[in-house]
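Bug #77: duplicate submission created two jobs. Keeping one. Sequence:
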Amino acid sequence: MTRHVEQTPTAQQSVTTVPQAVPSLWIDLLRSLRPRQWVKNAVVFAPLVFGAQLTHFSACLRAVLAAGAFCAVGSAVYLYNDWHDAEADRAHPLKRFRPIAAGRLRGRVVWSTFVVLLLLGAVLAIVVNVSLLLVLAAYLLLMVTYTRWLKHVVLIDVLVIAGGFVLRAVGGGVAVSVPMSPWLYMCTVLLALFLGFAKRRHELVLLDLAATNHRPILDDYPVALLDALLTVTAAATIMAYSLYTFSAPNLPSNHAMMLTIPFVLYGLFRYLYLVYRRESGGVPEQVLLNDLPLLISIVLWGLAALIVLYAPSLL
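Kept job's structure:
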C-alpha cells in the first residue's frame, strides 16, 4: 500500500512565488493609471505650437513639464474615479475587468498612489510657475466634483468634460506665457463635446437595457437626442475651426492655414463613420490609436499646420 506524503514547499519554492505576484500588482496599477488617456493632454501643447514658440527650447521644456503635471493629476483622478465607481463598474461588460472593480487593487495601494501622483503633479507645476499650479488645482477640483456629483446632471456632465479640456489648454498657455486664440478655445470645447456625446451614445447602445444600471444619467439621453447633439457639435466644430484659420491674428496673413481644413473635415467625418457604422466612440483615445485612416488624417493635419506656421520663418 502506497502511502501518500504531503510535501511542504521548500524555502526556495516559496520565494519564487512572491515575485510572480509583484509584476501583476504593478501591471494592474499601471492599467488603473490609464496611460492611454494621457494622449488627451496633447491639448497642453496647443499654445506652444500655435503661439509660434515651438522653436524655443525653454518654452518646449515648460510645456513638457505642464503636460507631465496633467498626466500625473489625471491618473490620480482616474484612481479616485475607479474607486468611487467600483460598484457601478461591476455592472459594465468591459469596466468590470478594471483592477479596482475586480478587487485586485486594495485601498492602501490606491490611496498611497493617489497621494504620490498629486504631489508629483504639484511639484512639476511649481517648477513651471505658480499660475500652472492654480490651473492644475482647478482641474483637480472640477474632476473630483464631476465624479461625486456633476456626472449625474444631464448635459452638465459632458460640459464638465469639455471644461477639463479647456483647463488643459489654459495650463499650456500659462506654462509658455502665450495667450491662445479664443477660436482655439472654442474649437477645444466643441471637439470635447463632440467626443463626449459620442461616448454617451456608445455606452447607451452597448449596454442597451442595462445602461441605466451602470450610469443612471443615460436614461436622460435618448439616442435621437445624442444623434442631434453629435450633428450640431460636429458642424459647429468645423465652422469654428474654419473661422480660426483665416481670422486669428497670429496666423500667416496669406490664410494658408485654411489648407488644413480638409484634414479636419475628414477626421470628423471618419469619427462619425466609426460611431455609426462600427459602434465605436466609447474610448476616444482607443479609436484614435486603433483606426489607421483617422490617425493618418491627424498626423497630416499636424504636419500641414507645422509647415504653414513655421516654414516661412525657417526659409
